[in-house]
Amino acid sequence: MSALRFAAIGLNHDHIYGQVNVMLRAGAELVAFHAVEDDLAAVFAGRFPQARRVANKMEILEDSSIALIVSAAVSSERASLAIEVMRHGKDVMLDKPGMVTLDQLAEVRRVQVETKRIVSILYSEHFETASTVKAGELVKAGAIGKVIHTTGLGPHRLRKPTRPEWFFDRKRYGGIITDIASHQCEQFLFFADSLEAEILSATVSNRANPDTPGLQDYGDFHLRTPDVTGYVRVDWFTPDGLSTWGDGRLFIVGTEGTIELRKYIDVAGRPGTDHLFLTDRKGMQHIDCSGVELPYGRQLAADIRDRTETAMGQDHCFKAMELALKAQVLAEATALNSVQR
Fold first, then answer.
1. Residue 92 β-bridge partners
2. What gap in Å lies between CA 10 and CA 135, rounded to an integer?
3. For the chain, how big is the Rg over CA atoms in Å?
4. DSSP secondary-structure letter at 88?
5. What does the alpha-carbon distance between residue 212 and residue 107 come to, in Å, rounded to a whole number?
6. Which of 20, 250, 298, 322 has the least CB density, counted as fewest CB within 10 Å?
7. Domains and their CATH numbers in the chain
8. What 8-state DSSP symbol labels residue 246?
9. Residue 234, helix vs strand vs coil
10. Which of the four pLDDT bands, split at 50, 70 and 90, describes residue 285?
11. What number is the average pLDDT over the span 94-100?
C-alpha cells in the first residue's frame, strides 16, 4: 500500500508543524507546500526539506496524487481554503479555529455535505495531548462512573512582540473564545458524549492590553448538554515565571470519581507533562501518560483511505466550532449591552 501523500497551504501559525508531524508519524509523505511569505517558507523548508515549495497553490490543488491538505493559514482565511480544497476533491486538516464566523461554518458544512470530503480540525489539546487521550480511555471504561461536569482551563502566554499583525485583529483571529476555547468545546463534547449542547453564558474582555484594543485577553463561558454541565476559562495571562506556555488543566467529575489533568506542567510538582490524577472509591493515584499512543494521525489516514470517521466524527468536529462561535457571539453581545446600559 502506497503512503498517503499530503501538502501544506498556509503557514501563518506555528501549529502547522504539529499538523505536519501528526501525519508524518502516521507514515504519510509530505510532498509540497505553498506560502506567499518568504520568511515563513524558509523556516518550513528548513524543517521539511523533502517538500518542494510551489509558487501557485493550484499546482497542489490540481495534483490528483495528493489526498490531504493541511493548513494553518490566517484564521479568517481557513474556511475559504477548506472549501476550495474540498471542491478539488481533497480532504483537509485545519488548525483551530477552522472558521471565525457562523456564516463561514454554515458554508463549510454545506460544501462538506455536497462534496463528501473530510474536514478535520486538529484540536491538539485533545488529540496531541496524551493525558487527554488517556482520560478518554478511563472514562470509556467507567473509571469515574457517569460524567456530570467538566472544567477546562486554557491559559496561554502572550509573547506580544513575536505575534504577527493579524493576531490582534478581531475579524482575522476570531476572538479569544473562537480561537482558543474551541479546544475546550471539543473536549466538553467528547467527555459528555453528546452533540446536543448549548451555551448558557459567556464573557470576553481586554483587561491588560489597551495598546492592542482588538485583542481579547480573557474569556469564559458556561455550557451544558441534557446531562452534563461545563465551564471554560481561557486567557493570555500565563506568568513569565512559568516554564511552559500555559498551565492547561481539565477537571472531569463523574458519579463515582474524578479526573484532573495537568497537561503541560505540574506546577512545583512532578517534572514533565501529561499528568493525570484519578480519584475513585478505592483511593487516589497519579498516572504518567507519557507513553500513551496518540492515534489521531493514524486514524485520519485510515479515514481518508476508507472514507470512515474514526479520528473524529464530522458532526463532532463542526459542533465544537459551533459552540465556540456561539459563545463568542454571546460574549460580545453581553459586553456591548453592558456598555450601552
1. 69, 119
2. 32
3. 20
4. T
5. 31
6. 298
7. 5-122 (3.40.50.720), 126-294 (3.30.360.10)
8. -
9. strand
10. very high
11. 98
Q: What are phi and psi of 56, to 5 degrees?
A: -125, 125
pTM, entire model:
0.96
Distance (Å, whole) CA 144 – CA 147: 7
3-state secondary structure of 122: strand
Closest CA to 57 of 36, 38, 39: 36
Rounded Cα distance between 143 and 259, Å, is 9
Amino acid 46 reads G
CB atoms within 10 A of CB 83: 21
Q: Are 40 and 12 in contact (CB under 8 A)?
A: yes
The 3-state secondary structure of 264-291, one letter per residue: CCCCCCCCCCCEEEEEECCEEEEEECCC
Average pLDDT over residues 248-260: 98
Cα distance between residue 237 and residue 53, in whole Å? 37
- Return the C-alpha cell found at 237: 495571562
Alpha-carbon span 210 to 140, nearest angstrom = 45
* 3-class SS of residue 40: helix
Q: How far is the C-alpha of 225 from the C-alpha of 89, rounded, in Å?
A: 35
CB 32 within 8 A of CB 53: yes
Task: State the sign of the Cα–Cα–Cα–Cα dihedral 70, 75, 77, 78.
Answer: positive
